[in-house]
Amino acid sequence: MPPVDAPSQLHRLYLVCKYYRALGITAAELEIVLAILIHQFDSPDVPLSNRMLAMLAGKVTRAVQIHVHALSASELLIVKPTFRTDGGQEANTYDLSPLFAALEEVDLWRCQ
């Protein structure tokens, strides 16, 4: 995902918080999305393990897995695993572009 400047990132954060219910996202899933956004802003090129995502979101790892699966099943999040040189899974990268596309539709619809 290309780097995003700070004002654009803040606007995305605002839109996510404002319209998450309209997208069918629960409050618990919102916490996961916000943790991913914060991580991507702070460390855009660093994959994120479930354990680290759980720590950022203040949740247990199993809850993170459940919420990430729900967001992925809703086609709002694309999860791409990353692997170590020995073939074991190291972490994930998270693509929120489907969520941002859905947010644009909701925001445009509400502005009409």
* Largest sheet features: 2 strands, antiparallel
C-alpha end-to-end distance: 30 Å
* H/E element order: HHHHEEH
Strand content: 5-15%
Number of distinct helices: 5
Query: Which structural class matches the secondary elements?
Result: mainly alpha
Radius of gyration: 14 Å
| Main sheet: strand order | 1-2
The average pLDDT value, as a whole number, equals 89
Q: Low-confidence stretches at least 5 residues in length (pLDDT < 50)?
A: none
Q: Give the proportion of residues in helices.
A: 55-70%
What is the overall shape? globular
Describe the structure.
- It is a single chain.
- By secondary structure, this protein is mainly α.
- The protein contains five helices and two strands.
- It has a two-stranded antiparallel ribbon.
- The longest helix is centred in the N-terminal third of the chain and has 16 residues, at 27-42.
- The radius of gyration is 14 Å and the shape is globular.
- It starts with 5 loop residues before the first helix and ends with a helix.
- The model has no long low-confidence stretch (mean pLDDT 89).
